[in-house]
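Can anyone check this?
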Amino acid sequence: MKTGKINKSFFLLLILFIGYTCVYVDKYTIGISLVSVSQDLGFNPSEKGLILGAFFLGYTIMQIPMGYLSNKLGSKIVLIWSLIGVGLFLIIFGFGFSLLFLVVVRFLTGALAHAGYPPSVSGFIATNIPMEKKGFAQTIMISSSGFAMFIGPLLVAPLLATVGWRPTYYIMGSIVILIGLLLFFLPRQEPQVIASKEEKKSLSFLQIIKDPIIWILIIAAFLMNASIYGLTSWLASYLNEARGLPIEQVGYVSSLTGIFILIAGVAGGYIIGRFLRGKERGVIVISSIAGAICMYGVFSFQSLTAAIVMLCISNILAIVAFSTLMSLPHALFSPKEVATKYATVNAGGCFWRLFLRP
C-alpha cells in the first residue's frame, strides 16, 4: 500500500516536472533565440528588451487572477490550459514579422499561459502530496529550471543554427502541446482533501496583502528574481556579443550551468528537508550572499573559464536559496491558501521584470 502511494506521488511529480521543464525552456531559450530573431528582423538591444519586458508584464499582472482561478476551477484544468497555451503561443511566435507582433504575442504568452502554471502546480501539490513531502516536491519543481537550462539550449541552439528561428518555434510549440496532453492523466482532487463549504471561501486580496509574512516573501522573491533572471535573460547576448562566443557554444555554457542547477535543486531540497528543517532562513541568507559574490565574479574575471566557473557556482547557490524560499508557503499556509498566496508572492517577485532592459 505504501509502495503504491510512493509510485503515485512519483508519477504526479514526474508529469508536473516535465510540464515545468517546458515552461522554463521557453523562458530560458528566448534569450538565445532573440539573438537570431534580432539579426533577422533588425532589432536593437532596447527592442529586444521590449519583447522580454512584455512577457513579464503579462506574467506578473495575471499571476494572482490565475491563482484565484486555480482555486475556483481546480488546479488540473488551469495546468492543462497553461501548458497547451504555452505551446500554441510558441507556434504563433514563429510567424512573427514585426516588433509589435512579437511584443503582443509574448505579452499574451505570459498572461494567458505561463501565469497559470506556477500557482496551479503549488495548489496541486498542496492537495495531492503528503505534508512531509510538500516542501521537497516544490523544490523539485523549481529545480526543473536546471533541467530546462540543460536540455533547452542543447535542442534550441542547433535548431536555430540549422533550420532558423521560425521552424524552431513551430517544432518547440508542437512538442509542448503534446506534452500538455499528458496532464489529462493527472488525478482529480483527492477525496480526503476536498474542502468544506467554509474552507472553499476564497481569500480576499485585502486579506492577503495584510499578511506581513506575504510581504517578507515578496521582497525576498523580488530581490532573488532580479539577480537570477537578470543574469539568465542577458547571458546569451553577453557571451555572444561581449565574450565573442558563437551561438552554439553559448548553448553549451547554458546547458552546463543547467546541470549544476538541477543537481543543486534536487540535492539541496533533500538535504534541507531531511537535516535542516526549521533552519531555512539561515540557508537562504548564506546562499544568497555567497551567490551574489560569485555572480559579481562572472563579469569581473577576464578569464572566460573563471567566469564560467563563477557562473556555475552562483547558479547553484541561487537555486538553493530560491527553491528554499518558494517552498515556504507549503509550511506557512494552509492547503486552501497555497495557490493564491504563492501566486501573490510570485507576482511580487516578478515585478522588476517589467523594466528588463540592457
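Reply from J.R.: I decoded it. The chain has a mean pLDDT of 83.
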